[in-house]
Design brief:
The protein is an alpha/beta fold. The chain has a single domain, classed as TIM Barrel (Alpha-Beta Barrel). The protein contains eleven helices and eight strands. It has an eight-stranded parallel β-barrel, surrounded by seven helices. α1 links the parallel β1 and β2. α4 packs across α5 and α8 packs parallel to α9. The protein is globular and about 70 Å long. The model has no long low-confidence stretch (mean pLDDT 97). The structure holds erythose-4-phosphate. The site of erythose-4-phosphate has 11 residues, from α7. Erythose-4-phosphate binds next to α7.
């Protein structure tokens, strides 16, 4: 399973990439707002594109297809690895069709059921992003949606990749991998949790303590 970092923080992205396990990045307007400071979104996006070899997902904010296509073209022009995030709406579907004709890749975001994923795939999107954590938050099973989308895509040989998004804890990552999702996009805090186990720390401390008794 590919792992994307779900952040616009360039320091976290640079660190994650140095671990050799980050395959791409997803951002959204909320994540971008956390990094606003003195830098423009364009400066931040350019830096992310330069750090990451794989797909860098940047989101449009227009609500109409014309506006989405205009923004999508501008975002895609920033780098070959840019994927344009389009919201799951009727206007979004129209924009996906038009961007595909221009050779621009799209990730359909804010997916909350399998029918939305099917429609986005039929329109020609390259990725769908079901938001598992936000579904769990309202008492629905986010992972059940992922399972349903995987089955539907399998039934019809649909090549659109599934990005498990809105990941809240390591169990989401494990479940995504067990189901066979293509990608999980995770905040850096969760990526760090994936590395850790208390028994690893305990074992290492014991090894180092015992090593002091060895003549070298
Ligand atoms: C996905 O691309 C989104 O950026 C993200 O996963 C949303 O997650 P949240 O529900 O934690 O905001």
């Amino acid at each position: 399973m590919k792992i994307f970092l779900d952040t616009a923080n360039v320091d976290d992205i640079r660190e994650g990439v140095s671990w050799g396990i980050v395959d791409g990045v997803t951002t959204n307007p909320t994540l971008a707002s956390k990094e606003a400071g003195n830098r423009t979104f364009w400066d931040i996006a350019k830096e992310i594109i330069n750090i990451v070899q794989g797909p860098v997902n940047l989101e449009v904010t227009a609500l109409d297809a014309d506006g989405m296509v205009k923004e999508g073209k501008k975002l895609a022009a920033m780098g070959k690895n840019v994927v344009v995030k389009i919201p799951m709406t009727v206007e979004g579907l129209k924009a996906i069709v038009r961007l595909k004709k221009l050779g621009i890749k799209t990730n359909t975001t804010l997916i909350f059921n399998s029918n939305q994923a099917l429609l986005a795939a039929k329109a020609g999107t390259d990725y769908v992003s079901p938001f598992v954590g936000r579904l769990d938050d309202i008492g629905e099973s986010g992972m059940q949606i992922v399972k349903d989308i995987l089955q539907i895509f399998l039934n019809y040989g649909i090549k659109t990749e599934i990005i498990v998004a809105s990941v809240r804890h390591p169990v989401h990552v494990q479940e995504a991998a067990l189901l066979g999702a293509d990608i999980a996009t995770v905040p850096f805090s969760i990526l760090k949790m994936l590395v850790k186990h208390p028994k690893t720390d305990e074992g290492l401390a014991k090894f180092l303590e015992d090593w002091k008794k060895v003549k070298v």
